[in-house]
Amino acid sequence: MKTVRLQALLDAPKAFGVSYKTAITYTDERWKELASSERLPHFWLALDRDEPVGMIGAGVDQTGHFNLIGMWLNSKYRGSGVAEHLVNAVKARAIDMEYQRVILNVSPDNLRAFQFYKKQGFVFIDEFEELSSHPHIKVQTMEWVSMA
Predict the structure, then answer these.
(1) Residue 53: count of CB within 10 angstroms of its CB
(2) Structural domain of 29
(3) What is the spatial distance between Cα 16 and Cα 13, in angstroms, rounded to a whole number?
(4) pLDDT more than 70, % of the chain
(5) Total domains, the chain
(6) Residue 25 main-chain phi, psi, to 5 deg
(7) First-last CA distance in the chain
(8) Cβ pair 111, 92 in contact under 8 A
(9) 121: burial class by Cβ within 10 Å (0-12, 13-18, 19+)?
(10) Is the N or the C terminus of the chain less surrounded, counting Cβ atoms within 10 Å?
């Protein structure tokens, strides 16, 4: 997880709530804690054989919302269907935990990302906030609601 997360932060530094500069200082114990299945958020890795090529996270925030976080895929795998599998894993976890709604934050300027999420059934709602790692960037909330 450490390897793929650091790759993601280098590849898309303005897409995440934590910066590479911060994450590189995490101890091995912190990385183990983040990767633990015993805590939220949960993270899933996409693997090609044994090589991590992408990741996604999800969990319940302080306000009780089920959030999709930390989505990233190595550019060689974009458009391959791997990202859809990762998002479907998050949707399934939400439903397993009896949440019918998943939210995420994305910059409306990140055209590729918001178009991808739109294809996955997410829609923009009228909520905005500053990206914690880059406060000058505003992100907007998107939501997906289960029809089940």
Answers:
(1) 19
(2) 2-145
(3) 7
(4) 99
(5) 1
(6) -90, -5
(7) 32
(8) no
(9) middle
(10) C
pTM of the shown model: 0.87
Return the residue matching tokens 């000058």. 136
Q: What is the per-residue pLDDT for 105?
A: 94
One DSSP character per residue, 94-135 reads HHHTT--EEEEEE-TT-HHHHHHHHHTT-EEEEEEEEETTEE
Q: What is the CATH number of the domain that holds 40?
A: 3.40.630.30
CA distance 27 to 43: 18
67: pLDDT strictly greater than 90: yes
Q: Which amino acid is at 146?
A: S
User: Which residues make beta-bridge pairs with 67?
Assistant: 59, 103
- Map tokens 């994450």 to a residue: 23
User: What pLDDT, on a 0 to 100 scale, did the predictor assign at position 109?
Assistant: 80
Query: What's the pLDDT score for residue 133?
Result: 85
Residue 92 in this model has a pLDDT that exceeds 80: yes
Contact 31, 61 (CB under 8 A): no
Q: How far apart are CA 9 and CA 21, in angstroms?
A: 9
Residues in the chain: 148
Backbone angles phi, psi at 99, to 5 degrees: -105, 135
Degrees to nearest 5, angle at CA 48 with 44 and 54: 40
